[in-house]
Write a structure and sequence with these properties.
Blueprint lengths: L8 H4 L5 H5 L7 E4 L11 H14 L6 E4 L6 H9 L3 E5 L5 H8 L4 E2 L4 H10 L7 E9 L5 E3 L6 H7 L2 E7 L46 E7 L13 H19 L10 E3 L3 H12 L5 E4 L2 E3 H9 L2 E6 L1 E3 L2 H9 L1 H5 L2 E3 L2 H4 L2 H7 L2 E5 L2 E3 L4 E2 L2 E2 L3 E2 L6 H7 L2 E5 L3 E2 L4 E2 L1 E2 L14 E4 L2 E4 L5 H12 L5 H16 L16 H9 L5
Parallel strand pairs: 1-2, 1-5, 2-3, 3-4, 5-7, 7-8, 9-15, 10-12, 11-13, 12-14, 15-20, 16-23, 20-24
Antiparallel strand pairs: 5-6, 16-17, 18-19, 21-22, 24-25
Helix pairs in contact: 3-4, 4-5, 8-9, 9-10, 14-15, 16-17
């Protein structure tokens, strides 16, 4: 493999195999790895480390590490290390099935953190010392500056805070990424913090490169391997109906004068429903929109291509194989319209509130009063994590959560009397959307919210039971058992979930 991606003479002297680099990681280390939604994660060192851990386990040694990332990664990282039992603690977000199984089996600890909090928690020392950083980059300049890859995530913090640094230089990452990034080095610890000077999604307030103390770099590993590019399921009738409700609502907000004709900057979670909404926006009446989000996926790429979206800011790409081909084939075009930032900036509450973001995220379930569970199945089993949805929901101009109204072939209602786990309280949720309709909860008291959520979002099969629950809760409160502000039957509030666990269906 050519060394042209490694232009710094000193770092060329530190090129070694992935096995040799992995051997520099010790049992008990906290390891910060690059990667955000399957983009820009190290490809070879984690796999080599997993083999090393497996050999250690076979000889009776204990070898486990803490793994800190930007968000989810890929089977070559999370999956490989989880498979050999090599992860003691994982944070802040994961989506790997092996990790998930081990977490829910009590075999791996997991801290689910708002993504905007991770970098500052490390800077504050809240999580302990970061021993090693393993960061993928697209290249190293002659003066030692690093060209970031297809995600930025927490890489700036990992490089700054780690005792030792291992760089994976991946020549698969297109050289044309150079110049797309905006790495801001103006964040400080309290009491020395300054306002972040970002007033428009396209503002560049930093520089295109990452910095690292060259004396901390202990290994450089060359790779030529692709990111995990997952295909998206084409929009189905349910996701298209959800998208249509959201587009109608945004059009109404424009007519009322609460949104400008070009809307406000868009944030969209990852997934098929999110892509359906973006596809609908691409066909809709709004022009010259902008994006300020965590992850840029196919839907926003299509909007940039059509001109509906003028520009987009994110911290990572998350493209299907077809989307990645489109991106690579027209990289010069997209480099002028995409900015990739550290996640502490892409998800920063101050910036989100200043820009007035329209936030659209998925959920597992919502309850009658607008509380949202986006992380846990039946209250106890982690699915993926809160990710950045809380960063955006609490600070957005409009905070929307969306889901199909039912799951498991109609056995589960995604509108329930009380959510089994709370990630986003009723105070942060303004709009709930299912294929049945859209509930605008702004300006409504709890009992008013309950009526709107039932009639507009719940599936018809579950509406009678929900109406009955509310009516009986109100009667009970009038009889002195509880209050009427947020009526509940405490003995029944989670009975739908309990019944599903026992009988396989929420309502008899």
């Amino acid at each position: 493999m050519s060394a042209s991606r490694i232009q710094h003479a000193g770092l060329r002297q530190k090129i070694m195999s992935a096995e040799a680099a992995a051997a520099l990681i010790r049992h008990g280390d906290h390891v910060g790895m690059s990667g955000f939604t399957g983009a820009g994660y190290p490809k070879l060192v984690p796999a080599a480390l997993a083999r090393h851990i497996e050999q250690a386990n076979a000889s009776g040694e204990t070898f486990r590490i803490g793994v800190w990332t930007g968000a989810s990664t890929a089977p070559e990282l999370d999956g490989a290390l989880a498979q050999v039992g090599g992860i003691e603690m994982r944070l802040p977000y994961q989506s790997d099935p092996t990790c998930r199984a081990r977490i829910n089996a009590g075999q791996m600890e997991y801290i689910d953190i708002h993504l905007s909090h991770v970098a500052q928690f490390v800077w504050f020392g809240f999580l302990g010392q970061l021993n090693v950083a393993v960061v993928e980059v697209a290249g190293i300049l002659e003066d030692g500056r690093l060209i970031p890859a297809s995600s930025v995530g927490n890489n700036k913090t990992w490089l700054d805070q780690a005792d030792k640094v291992i760089l994976e230089v991946n020549s698969w990452q297109p050289a044309g990424l150079e110049g797309m990034h905006d790495i801001y080095y103006g964040t400080h610890r309290p009491p020395h913090r300054k306002p972040i000077p970002l007033e428009h999604p396209g503002d560049r307030i930093g520089e295109p490169y990452l910095h690292v103390d060259l004396d901390k770099v202990v290994a450089v590993v060359e790779t030529h391997l692709p990111d995990r590019n997952s295909s998206f399921t084409p929009p189905d009738e349910t996701s298209n109906r959800i998208a249509a409700h959201i587009l109608d609502f945004l059009g109404h907000e424009v007519k009322k004068g609460r949104l400008p004709p070009e809307l406000l900057p868009l944030q969209s979670g990852v997934g098929n429903i999110a892509n359906a909404v973006l596809s609908g926006l691409n066909q809709g009446p709004f022009e010259r929109m902008t994006g300020y989000t965590e992850v840029l996926q196919d839907g926003m790429l299509e909007m940039l291509k059509s001109g509906k979206l003028a520009m987009a800011s994110a911290t990572a790409l998350s493209l299907s194989p077809a989307g990645m081909t489109e991106f690579l084939d027209h990289l010069d075009f997209y480099r002028e319209r995409i900015v990739l930032r550290p996640q502490e900036i892409s998800n920063h509450p101050e910036v989100i509130r200043r820009l007035g973001i329209i936030s659209m995220n998925g959920m597992i379930e919502a309850d009658l009063y607008g509380n949202v569970n986006s992380t846990h199945i039946m209250g106890t089993r982690i699915m993926n994590g809160i990710g950045g949805s809380g960063d955006f929901a609490r600070n957005a101009y409009l905070a929307m959560f969306m889901t199909p109204s039912t799951a498991k072939d109609g056995a589960i209602s995604c509108i329930v009397p009380m959510v089994s786990h709370v990630d986003h309280t009723e105070h942060d949720v303004q709009v709930v959307v299912t294929e049945q309709g859209l509930a605008d909860l702004r300006g409504l008291a709890p009992r008013q919210r309950a009526q709107v959520v039932i009639e507009r979002c719940a599936h018809p099969d579950f509406r009678p039971a929900l109406r009955d629950y509310v009516a009986r809760a109100e009667r009970s409160a009038r009889q002195g058992l509880g209050g009427l502000h947020t009526p509940h039957l405490l003995d029944e509030a989670l009975s739908w979930h309990s019944r599903f666990e026992r009988e396989g269906r929420m309502v008899a």
